[in-house]
Design goal:
The chain has 15 helices and no strands. The protein has 343 residues and is mainly alpha-helical. The chain has one domain (29-341).
């Protein structure tokens, strides 16, 4: 047994190196478990064309029996907290704001309006189903911005007393599943409505939750639709730091007047500005994107380990109803906007 493991105390005389070894000894088993699940999920996602995050969740839940194991618990907790925040911070290097004029300012403003309306609808729908406003912000933000990544980022900002890990898991499963369904159905729906490639691309980018599914759906229609869909989706992703800052400020004030921002939000914003103001080598950007993706996969794998199926469905299906209605609300609003303002 590692000295101090039972009480969590560090020997007073221990220096930095000793503390680092003690920490590594406590966390290595849980970290290895979460990272192994993340690698397996990534392999399955690449070879079967399904969302890797969904695989990470499902495989992680299969190892729920290890969640309370003293050897695995510290590393699992570290993964769901620190690695999650590191992964979100690195997302800032994925954002670029070039070619803003490609669609004109009306569709750009439409993206902002749809995001605000979806967040508001999320809170209202959540309250109608007896869920908290925080859950409405969590699920509405995931639907409005970028799916599972946004859900994880917003959950990291929300105070723990306002949101449960089960709520995060509900949201990630819901938006990932609906995003995959939308990738198949939306191109057919928009085509049946007789819309041109420009509108189809805009609607795909404005309504499907996850970036990968947006790209898949857009380029399944045409190259033009794919380009417009990707650009529109990145506009939504670019609003993530604004939403994170707003949520952090709202709940920090409620918690006692503190308005300091979480460190990873500051890093996220700084990296986003760096990405757009300073030319960075592509290998560095590719490495950062890969690291961010793996860190988020590891975090969500660990989150799956910490949650059992019994806990997941203990609150009933209301959480899935909320996410489903938010998705339909976003689709209806986007269709209305495209018909009225895009000719």
């Amino acid at each position: 047994m590692i000295p101090g493991e039972g009480s969590g105390a560090t020997p007073p005389a221990a220096g930095g190196w000793e503390r680092a070894k003690l920490w590594a000894g406590r966390t290595k088993d849980g970290l290895f478990l979460a990272a192994t699940i993340a690698l397996a999920a990534s392999f399955l996602g690449e070879h079967y064309g399904a969302p890797a995050m969904l695989f990470a969740l499902l495989i992680g839940m299969a190892f729920n029996f290890l969640a309370a194991d003293q050897r695995a618990e510290p590393g699992i907790v570290f993964s769901t907290r620190t690695l999650l925040r590191l992964g979100v911070a690195l997302l800032g290097l994925r954002l670029t704001f070039e070619d803003v004029a490609e669609l004109g300012w009306t569709p750009v403003l439409g993206v902002v309006g749809l995001l605000l309306l979806t967040l508001g609808a999320g809170v209202l729908i959540a309250r109608a189903f007896g869920r908290s406003p925080a859950f409405g912000l969590l699920s509405g933000g995931a639907v409005a911005i970028c799916g599972a990544s946004a859900a994880l980022a917003i959950a990291a900002v929300l105070p723990k007393r306002h949101i449960r890990e089960d709520d995060v898991l509900f949201t990630v499963v819901g938006v990932t599943t609906l995003s995959t369904v939308a990738m198949v159905i939306y191109p057919v729906l928009f085509g049946a409505l007789g819309l041109g490639d420009l509108k189809v691309g805009y609607l795909i980018g404005a309504t499907i939750h996850d970036v990968a599914q947006v790209v898949g759906a857009g380029y399944s229609v045409s190259e033009t639709a794919g380009d417009i869909a990707t650009f529109t989706k990145l506009q939504r992703v670019a609003l993530l730091p604004v939403v994170l800052i707003a949520v952090a400020l709202i709940y920090r004030r409620e918690a006692g007047g503190k308005v300091g921002l979480p460190w990873f939000v500051v890093v996220f914003t700084g990296l986003m500005l760096l990405r757009n103001l300073v030319p960075l080598p592509e290998p560095l950007l590719d490495a950062a994107n890969g690291a961010s993706r793996f860190l988020l996969l590891t975090a969500i794998a660990a989150l799956g380990v910490r949650t059992s199926l019994a806990q997941l469905f203990a609150a009933g299906p209301r959480g899935f109803y909320v996410i489903g209605l938010e998705t339909l609300a976003l689709l209806a609003m986007a269709l209305g906007f495209a018909q009225v303002f895009m000719g």
